[in-house]
Write a sequence for this structure.
């Protein structure tokens, strides 16, 4: 198709050149004949001007044809024909004489593309936004926060919140707050971590900045890559009139030195520094009796005392009593050949899996006019459970 168009253009151009050549030759012959016949000078001048006009017109035709061919090619292979160029504001600055008129609007509105876009627009659904009831929204938010706080206080799994929204709507059918309540586990988690936790932590930090307090820290088992060292704060709450204990930070430590005193204290001091809390207000510290915590040379105790020499360190009294009782029980078993711990463990497993034996024990208790109680398993790692198990 492109080759046929080029051949036609060349044929037209050759025809025009031939016509121009024939006209020029004819005028030249006419000039020679007129001069030979002795015609007046005015006639000869007129014929020469006609020849110049023909030559000039031929040149103009050639240039116009070349320009037209170039424009036609550019329209076919570039510009709006390919990229569908839209109107640009920069054109007004470049060509300030360009002014859109009514004809442009009519031409655009009658185009197929405009009709297609208008048809698509009519198919869209309109969104009617209702005015927001600010008071009702605040009441719904307050209810969601209250429920989240209740779940945390009683250690209820957050998965329960997936069932609360439909339950409230079903129970409180006449309540607008219940109809708007929509806080499942994801939103409840966001309320807890993004709203409640920062609020209570900020309140705790403000109290620590201006009131005396004591801290307690203990490490988790070394089962993972991270070691948790929950740092709790104990202080007197003027609002409730009680001594309360709140969690300040988990103090996570990692690496091969995660359980060493230097790593744990560095994390503790980092928490204090980031929250703007001074060690001067720390009057006591509670830790267990390991050398990491209470060692004489390199421990958490020595590092805290460098910050505040007046801090009182108290080891875990449960550990102290447990170790004392354990030694006494071991000595008693050695002398009497009777181990109380073994007896309690054997009794528990003897009655644990047998309903018949438990019923027999219950009948014996009734015969002795005593109340039947379920057997409690003694935990070997804590000797203090021995007293409860015996009772």
């Amino acid at each position: 198709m492109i080759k046929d168009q080029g051949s036609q253009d060349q044929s037209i151009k050759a025809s025009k050149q031939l016509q121009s050549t024939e006209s020029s030759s004819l005028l030249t012959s006419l000039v020679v004949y007129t001069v030979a016949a002795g015609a007046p000078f005015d006639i000869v001048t007129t014929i020469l001007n006609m020849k110049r006009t023909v030559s000039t017109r031929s040149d103009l035709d050639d240039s116009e044809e070349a320009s037209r061919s170039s424009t036609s090619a550019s329209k076919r292979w570039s510009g709006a024909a390919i990229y569908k160029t839209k109107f640009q504001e920069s054109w007004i600055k470049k060509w300030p004489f360009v002014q859109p008129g009514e004809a442009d609007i009519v031409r655009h509105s009658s185009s197929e593309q405009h009709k297609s876009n208008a048809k698509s627009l009519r198919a869209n659904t309109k969104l009617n936004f209702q005015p927001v009831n600010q008071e009702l929204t605040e009441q719904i938010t307050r209810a969601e926060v209250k429920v989240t706080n209740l779940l945390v206080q009683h250690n209820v799994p957050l998965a329960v919140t997936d069932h609360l929204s439909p339950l409230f709507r079903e129970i409180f059918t006449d309540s607008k707050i219940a109809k708007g309540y929509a806080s499942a586990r994801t939103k409840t988690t966001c309320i807890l971590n993004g709203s409640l936790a920062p609020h209570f932590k900020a309140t705790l930090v403000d109290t620590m900045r201006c009131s005396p307090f004591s801290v307690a820290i203990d490490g988790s088992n070394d089962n993972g890559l991270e070691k948790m060292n929950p740092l709790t704060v104990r202080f007197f709450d003027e609002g409730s009139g009680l001594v309360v204990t709140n969690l300040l930070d988990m103090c996570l430590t990692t690496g091969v030195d995660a359980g060493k005193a230097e790593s744990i204290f560095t994390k503790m001091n980092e928490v204090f520094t980031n929250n703007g809390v001074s060690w001067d207000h720390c009057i006591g510290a509670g830790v267990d009796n390991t050398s990491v915590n209470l060692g004489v040379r390199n421990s958490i105790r020595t590092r805290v005392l460098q910050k505040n020499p007046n801090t009182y360190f108290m080891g875990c009294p449960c550990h102290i009593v447990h170790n004392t009782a354990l030694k006494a029980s071991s000595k008693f078993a050695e002398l009497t050949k009777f181990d109380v711990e073994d007896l309690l463990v054997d009794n528990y497993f003897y009655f644990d899996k047998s309903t018949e034996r438990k019923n027999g024990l219950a009948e014996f208790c009734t015969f002795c006019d005593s109340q039947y109680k379920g057997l409690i398993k003694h935990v070997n790692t804590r000797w203090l459970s021995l007293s409860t198990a015996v009772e």
